[in-house]
């Protein structure tokens, strides 16, 4: 009889352990499910777009933001230095400003493209993003939107450069530079350069917001963000 009770006790111990393991695997009200995880990533990206990308569309959004300010391409950095050395710093500053103004105009085209890409995030995407690097969500967005954004940005930037007089400004700058006896002529494709720089600036600012949410609990401003990003903290 004692032996039977002993065996029954051993059986109950193991059964309880197995039962507890099953219970531990069941979802609780505070544990985000698959759709919650995808929704949390969508929300984080939407916050990055709303909070950071919208800043870039404003006047001086690029020009006075040192993280994304568009400087001269390598071919024209010597132009900038030469102009400043001979007292034409104001002209050089104006040349920089019009490049950044064109980028500010172009970024207004980005939001609808981003919104569509964010809607298409699947759970499998979200799971990999959540457990990825600090910029994993930004990288996902970049991979899924960059080509489309380039095709949208480029004509806007080209038109903007013409509208704000960039073509005239840069023709003036380049002509003055090329007229100097100590220089070699330069003729860069400014539209392509500014387009590439504008794209880089957009993703830089989205990554800033993503990193905040991943690393600072105070940046998780909704219950969904708190629950989903708590999973990566474990």
TrEMBL record:
Q: Which InterPro entries match?
A: DUF4197
Determine if Signal is one of this entry's keywords.
yes
Swiss-Prot/TrEMBL keywords = Signal
Q: Where is the signal peptide?
A: 1-19
| Pfam families given in the database record | DUF4197 (PF13852)
This protein's superkingdom? Bacteria
Tell me the protein's name: DUF4197 domain-containing protein
Q: Which organism is it from?
A: Sinomicrobium pectinilyticum
